[in-house]
Amino acid sequence: MSFFADIKALILGFWTTLRHLGRRSATIQYPEEKRSPFPRFRARIVLTRDPDGEERCVACYLCSAACPVDCISMQSAERPNGRRYAAWFRINFSRCIFCGLCAEACPTMAIQMTPDYEICKRDVMDLVYEKEDLLIDGCGKDPDYNFYRHSGIGVVNPRGGNPDENPPLDVRSLLP
Amino acid sequence: MPKLVIDTIELEVPAGTLILEAARSVGIMIPHFCYHPALGNAGACRVCAVKLIDGPVKGIQMSCMTPVQEGMVVSTTDADAVAMRRHVIEWLMINHPHDCPVCDEGGECLLQDYTIAAGHGTRRYQGKKRTHSNQYLGEHVQHEMNRCIQCYRCVRFYQDFAGGTDLGVMGRASTIYYGRFCEGSLESPFSGNLPDLCPTGVYTDKAARFRARYWDYDMAPSLCPHCSLGCATIPAARYRELLKIMARRNDAVNGWFLCDRGRFADHGVNSPERPRTPLLDGRETTWDEALAVLATRIGELFVSHGPGSLAVVGSPRLTLEGNYQAALLAEFLQAGALCYFVERDEAAAASAVVSLLTGDTAVSLAEVEQADCIALVECDLREQGPMLLLAVRQAWRKGAKIFLVGEGSPREQTDSVSLETLRVPTLADIPLADYSTPLVIATPSGSGTADIETAVTAGAKLVFPLSGPNTFAAALLTREHRATSLAEALASGTIKGLLAFEADLPEELLSGISLLAVADRFPSAAMIKSDVFLPTTAWVEMDGTFINHEGRAQRFRKVMNPGLPIKGLDPALHPPRVHRLDAPGGEPRPAWRIIADLAERLGAEQLVEPLSGRWEFLRDLDPEGEGERIL
Q1: Per residue in B414-438, is it b (16+ CB within 10 Å) or e — as a string?
Q2: Distance (Å) of CA B524 to CA B32, B188, B520, B530
Q3: How confident is the model at residue A151 (pLDDT cuts 50, 70, 90)?
Q4: How many CB pairs under 8 A join A and B?
Q5: Is A90 part of the contact surface with chain B (CB cutoff 8 Å)?
Q6: For chain B, which end, N or C, has fewer CB atoms within 10 Å of the first or last residue's CB respectively?
Q7: Among residues B522, A44, B271, B524, which one has the least CA distance to residue B510?
Q8: Which CATH class is domain B3-92?
Q9: Model confidence over B229-275: pLDDT tens digits?
Q10: Cα–Cα distance between A74 and B238 in angstroms, integer?
Q11: Above 70 in pLDDT, residue A1?
Q12: DSSP 3-state assignment of B522?
């Protein structure tokens, strides 16, 4: 009986091959031909700007704390108007594992993952991106969010000027 | 002693203990904002709610306001108590500006911790937030009143504990405001404790504003090098830059706090002027060459003038390790002189202190707080040891009488902590025998200690605020190794060579010196004149030991590696993009290591442990402990 079973298996195998001959190939000719990844694909990291065009990043160090491979480093600083920003911001893409924890940790939606997966350099130092390489001229995802219009310490809006705030109190007044 | 049960743990605590403290003694942490071990309770924040299930009182109570009573059964995990704490956190967050990413307290914030612990994640309150204007509080403390949760810790410390008069609480109910009546610098010499005390980010440290997060700091248990009290500190560094200094708890010395000098005074660690490479006749060189040339020149000096022409100089700011190695080097080379003090008076005063202080007469800062009569003799503690003033104030709050003796004790010092004092012309005018624990705080002096000796016979304890962090050890070593003052040694005219380790050499003493070797971390006139200059590490860049004013040896740990801060390096926009194994400017070495290396080149044995012989017992000193009294 095993003789007929073997013949059957042989024919089945050849039939499967024959059937696939007529199908379209799944292989694409990269790099001439490219597939577009899904919008939430996690590749090259960018720093975005808020709807007013200012840098969203406040250099709070949460991304560098969340990063499991320690590839993010930065130095925070203060602008004359009290706005906190990153004096420098560095991501070492030769070490990055594109896990997306930094983007998840970011409280201001500044750091975001893009679907640009083509990061390949001849010199490893070219994979160390500085702030000027990371900062883009757009909001990326969540285009309406502006952290400083929600946090009530008066940097973008005047103190007590956010929609959910009352104006500052006069502490010397005894009126209720 | 009442017995009670907290979360199934039976315990017996002294009467008067608060439930919160009793729970902590068995490892149960009840959340709290307004309670602080040094400041006591206020019952202001309502977040330490527990449920008393059985006993004389029942129901939900604030654990920081309820002393334990016999038969209490306390539950910290009862559903009612947990719900109460959750609701309290929720209303504390009602007016919070939600700005944690740009708040320096973020990461070390009690409010953040307890909000997360309470599980409050979604804002339900639809009303508007109350906001405040901030004040300029000087160059050290940043004010952000919107973050306030009204725990009263700041004013309780500032007014009650430290006797400050210019920061208080204004308004009422939901308009409560902590600040000055008018904008301006905080006047108390202890204002720097506000950032440490504030459970949220109302007061933050301006020096380290927007520089780093708590989890990124390089930190280690350390000591304050600015006076002889030996207060415990935690220096915080990041990217090779010393950012700020926080108080560390040491119940025997500084308690929980630190003075503004210890916190904000210039320490020179990050200074661009700081010498970081060895210099040979004014040009930069390597350690190998500098030490080899120094060894050769010492040999030449010995050939031309004999070993008696060399003086080895330690100092009151050099560690015990360095000072002891300096003594061993002087012995090994049979040097003509070993000096720890420059001026004759200084040496005489220090030796008078070590002869007057004994295990019976010396007291710690914690014991100063227990005194019932304190005489400040010819001293200004604002300069000589501000934390002593804070300790004196605690004694005064407990009822001690404070006397100012002599014209050299200005009233402004006690006014800065709001003390009532009596002025008397001499120490003999105070009836010390009428008090049970009298205390004399006096500027050390080489002459006229008769008054103080009389006071000791009347039962007085003694505190001498000394000049440097390690003056006591320098004085002990002076006695044990028969050292002299540098002025005295040079007066003989036989000294032709100086090996000075972290000593402040006055320029006029240096004429007639043919070989000058200086090891220091500060730039000085002596550095420019020196034939060989060797850079030393700052106290935060090394392990070491200081002996404080009462003879308490304390260990400090290395916080950071020496090196030029990344801030200020070229290019300015970001750190350099080149690989290096060693940090630029990372060449300074601990002074004791330099002495040992030099001794090795001169033929001594290789040194492994800097503390040996008489000091061997200090090798395993615990840097996080209270230190060890050596008297």
Answers
A1: bebbebebeebeebeebebeebebb
A2: 50, 32, 9, 10
A3: confident
A4: 102
A5: yes
A6: N
A7: B524
A8: alpha beta
A9: 999 999 999 999 999 999 999 999 999 999 999 999 999 999 999 99
A10: 11
A11: no
A12: coil
CB within 8 Å: B98 and A168: no
Amino acid at B440: V
B458 touches B432 (CB < 8 A): yes
Third-level CATH fold of A36-149 = Alpha-Beta Plaits (3.30.70)
Q: What is the pLDDT of residues B428-467, one digit of tens each?
A: 999 999 999 999 999 988 776 788 999 999 999 999 999 8
B551: pLDDT strictly greater than 90: yes
| Comparison of pLDDT for A153 and B149, the residue scoring more | B149
Which distant-in-sequence residues (6+ apart) come within 8 Å of A165 by Cβ? A152, B128, B129, B131
For chain B, the structural domain boundaries read 3-92, 129-264, 279-347+472-564+589-629, 362-437+451-463
Q: Which residues pair with B283 in a beta bridge?
A: B280
Q: H/E element holding B536?
A: none
Rounded to 5°, the CA angle B408-B364-B548 comes to 80
**What three-state secondary structure class fits B203?**
strand
SS3 string, A84-141, reads EEEEEEEEECCCCCCCCHHHHHCCCCCEEECCCCCCCCCCHHHHEECHHHHECCCCCC
The H or E element spanning position A80 is none
Chain B residues with CB-CB distance to A87 below 8 A = 573
Q: Give the model's confidence band at B516: pLDDT under 50 very low, under 70 low, under 90 confident, else very high.
A: very high
Tally of CB atoms within 10 A around B16: 9
Q: Is A70 in the B-facing interface, judged by CB distances under 8 Å? A: no
For chain A, state the CA radius of gyration.
27
Whether pTM exceeds 0.90: yes
Q: Which residue has 């060449």 as its token pair? A: B587
Q: Rounded to whole angstroms, how far apart are CA atoms B515 and B498?
A: 6
Q: What integer pLDDT is reported at residue B263 of this predicted model?
A: 95
Q: What is the pLDDT of residue B177?
A: 94
Percentage of chain B with pLDDT > 90?
88
Out of A84, A165, A167, closest to residue B102 by CB? A84
Contact yes or no for B94/B125 (Cβ under 8 A): yes
Q: Are residues B212 and A76, on separate chains, in Cβ contact within 8 Å?
A: yes
Q: How many helices (H) and strands (E) does chain B have?
A: 18, 29
Give the architecture-level CATH label for domain B279-347+472-564+589-629: 3-Layer(aba) Sandwich (3.40)
Q: Is pLDDT of B93 > 90?
A: yes
The residue ranking higher by pLDDT, A76 or B446, is A76
Condensed to tens digits (0 to 9), the pLDDT of residues B282-337 reads 999 999 999 999 999 999 999 999 989 999 999 999 999 999 999 999 999 999 99
Q: Does A128 touch chain B (CB under 8 A)?
A: yes
